[in-house]
Amino acid sequence: MPGYLLQQGATVLCMHGGQAQPVTTNMRVKVSGQPIVTQQDMYTISGCPFMSGSNPMPCVTGQWTSAATRVKAGGLPVLLQDSQAACTPNGTGFNILVTQIRVKGQ
Question: How many distinct structural domains can be found in the chain?
Answer without folding.
Answer: 1
